[in-house]
Amino acid sequence: MIRNTDQRSKDYKNISHEARPGHADFTGYERYHGFNDIRGGGHFSGRLTAPLVFAGGLCRQYLARRGIYVGAHLESIAGIRDHAFDPCETSEGRILAPENKAFPVIDDMAGEAMREAIEAARLDGDSVGGVVEIMALGMPAGIGSPMFDTVEGRLALGLYGIPAVKGVSFGNGFEAAAIRGSENNDAFYMDGEHVRTETNHHGGALGGITSGMPVIAHVAFKPTPSIAKRQKTIDYVERKDAEIQVQGRHDPCVVIRAVPVVEAVTSIILMDLLLGESN
Description:
The chain has helices at residues 25-32, 49-65, 92-96, 108-123, 151-159, 181-184, 255-278; strands at 69-77, 80-81, 130-137, 165-170, 188-191, 194-197, 205-206, 209-210, 215-221, 231-235, 240-244. By secondary structure, it is α+β, with helices and mostly antiparallel strands. The two termini are 30 Å apart.
């Protein structure tokens, strides 16, 4: 049991009928006919990622015993980009290194620029979003199924369950739409007795099945919707226009906290896929 011992429910008393822009207050009210709990976002809150991280930690240990390592870093915040993981030539140490830092990036200079962008947004009563890059190293080839049980589909389903996630892509993702097949295709070659590809534009999965190359995903998070600026909204009970200014404690960027959550969810899904293959 993880107790929430630092709550401030009173911060939500004056906005109990006002839809916070970017939040699920209105949709939750419609879906649950007024029985949703808006305090701290209720069951839409990022607080619910705590048990995900606990479960993911156990799954991550299981994967490590099988030689599979899951690591993530801040690919970008507010458009400021970190170095990317090497999609082909990497190691356990490289993908796990960012998690040992207070600010999980590969390039510390990029991290400092991200910090400055976050602070600038905070001082302006605003927020910023970003992207987390996740890699799973050591996944064997042949895991997954086509169509409705693909590796990408299973991962996307889990990753979209993380609050504030608005986009998930694999390998080249949307960039593949702008290049030719000759540029996007990955040439196969034999590395001793192991099948590998010279590049990894496919992100470790072909036809929804793992190829043996590192599995790579990019997870986009929207800016924190709770901002200090006054905004237009509605009173969804009285059905009238209103204005709102959100009070309380809110991060100007949730992406930093999201890195271990992305690692946890990825670990849960990959372990589930592997267990499914063994049954």
